Amino acid sequence: MSTLFKTLLAIHVIFGVVGVIACAGVWMNMLKQKLPVRFLKWSSAIGLVSFIASWVIGGYYYAIYYGKAVKPIIQKGQYPWGHSVFMEAKEHLFLFLPFLSAAMLVALLLAGEHLEAEAPLKKALTWLVGTIVVLGAIMALSGIIISGAVR
Amino acid sequence: MSWQFLLTFSHIIGTVLGVGGATFAEFFYLKALKDGHVDPEEGDFLKATYRVLRIGMALLILSGFGFFVLYRIGGRTELLYDPRFLAKLTLTAIIFFNALLLQIKKMPLWLGSALSFTSWYGALMLGAWRGIDASYFTILASYAGAVLMVAFVLHIIRKIYLKPIPPASS
Amino acid sequence: MQLSNIRFKLTRAALCAAAFSVTFITGITVTADLYLPLKNWLKLMFSHHWIGKGVLAGVVFTVIAIIFSFMPTPIDELKARTLSRSAWKLTIISCIGALVIVMFFIYEAFLKH
Question: What does DSSP assign to residue C2?
């Protein structure tokens, strides 16, 4: 693997994990009675920017390098399901995250100040950000499984 | 300074903050309950401890994924299926979801504190015990046993420490 | 809920557009794997089928967001309920979409042949 692709892979993982941590921060704080709205907005914005960065960088690595150099190794190796299940599901589920976190950010930016008074809306958005975190964590764990299958 | 050193250093710092935070959280909570209520000063101490715990967790996760990248680009991918690595990941997930459930009061306190305490010490032990030769399920079964044991010990400590002081006879 | 009309419209538009995009991604993922001419068309148009799906999902998001931002606003009392319903729909659609994609690839890998 060239230095460029090693760097891209590292940056993709770092942005992905930062995105999940930022959204996890939103999730934990959405469960509080008194909402730190400013923190929620910033953390949610960091989540969105990180997911988009991870998406673009990971996408470049995936489209240019993975298919030619990594996929054949996994398919011929001991764990072909590393690609056929985990990578296939990951690459498509990853497409969800920027849209979900964009919707979350817009909701917090425009209606964040009203959430404390509107319990049902707060609850619905808490579940939405929880879904983002769980999907993000599944992406991260799938990344480990896929990488472990490259041998 | 190599990446390996930087990651190991951050990983150790994260674990130290987590283990220390979990210990102090239990200690402060016990101390706060001695007089039956958590006063503002004690509340501040607890908040600061929880903040340290969260920083520790973020450092642990970031450095853990740093190791993942290092193994992947260094071609040492077999380490990613190492039971010790997978068990540490599981413990990290348990720490996160336990904190979340404690926050919404859906986790009984006796189990929540035992889970937090055992998970952090378990992560420390897995990190330190390099030559461990056990399967993923053996590690998790031992962990489950340890959680119950810690819950029992914490219960005894609370019972002894929080025993009401008999009124002084005049 | 004392949310201004413009803020309400934009929030609803983002939540609904995300729900449509997630549905679109789920649909095109399964369809392109079952109907290869679609996958080939995506490759031809966007150099890689995955890039095509991402770009088209972005287009769906933008178009639906524009449409929803022109839709009428309910009375103040119904604004919070409308937004929370949209957020719930988005969450449920995302969970179902994720489940469909995972099950589909498990089926493709282990059960198809």
Answer: -
Nearest to A129 by CA among A99, A148, A93, A104: A104
Facing B96 at nearest CB: one of A6, A24, A141: A24
B48 touches chain A (CB under 8 A): no
Distance CA A23, CA A139 (A): 14
Supply the pLDDT for residue B169.
60
Which DSSP symbol is given to A34? S
Instruction: Tell me the average pLDDT of chain B.
Output: 87
For B103-151, write each residue's pLDDT tens digit.
888 888 888 989 999 999 999 999 888 888 889 999 999 999 999 999 9
pTM of the model: 0.89
DSSP for B111-148 reads HHHHHHHHHHHHHHHHHH-TT----HHHHHHHHHHHHH
State the DSSP H helix or E strand holding residue B36, giving kind and residue range, or none if neither: none
**Is the Cβ–Cβ distance between A9 and A143 less than 8 Å?**
no
The helix, strand and coil proportions of chain C, stated in percent and rounded to the nearest 5, come to 85, 0, 15
Candidate from C18, C51, C110 with C-beta closest to A63: C51
Contact A136, A93 (CB under 8 A): no
Distance from C-alpha of B1 to C-alpha of C60, rounded to nearest angstrom: 47
For chain C, the straight-line distance linking the first and the last C-alpha, in angstroms and rounded, comes to 55
Question: Which residue in chain B has the smallest CA separation from A11?
Answer: B69
Confidence band, pLDDT 50/70/90 cuts, at residue B165: low
For residue A92, give how far its alpha carbon lies from the nearest alpha carbon of chain B (Å). Answer: 22
Question: Could you give the C-alpha distances from B31 to A89, B35, B160, in angstroms and in order?
Answer: 49, 8, 12
pLDDT value of position A135: 96
Sign of the dihedral through C-alpha C88, C100, A28, C61: negative
Provide the 8-state DSSP code for C11. Answer: H
> Average pLDDT of A123-127?
96
Does the structure's ipTM exceed the value 0.90?
yes
CA–centroid distance for A23 within its chain: 9
State whether A28 and B103 contact (CB < 8 Å). yes
Q: CA B38: distance to chain centroid?
A: 22
Distance from C-alpha of B48 to C-alpha of A35, rounded to nearest angstrom: 18
| Average pLDDT for C51-67 | 96
Confidence of residue A119 (pLDDT cuts 50, 70, 90): very high
pLDDT at position C87 is 97
In degrees, rounded to 5, the angle at the alpha carbon of residue B21 between the alpha carbons of residues B15 and B27 is 140
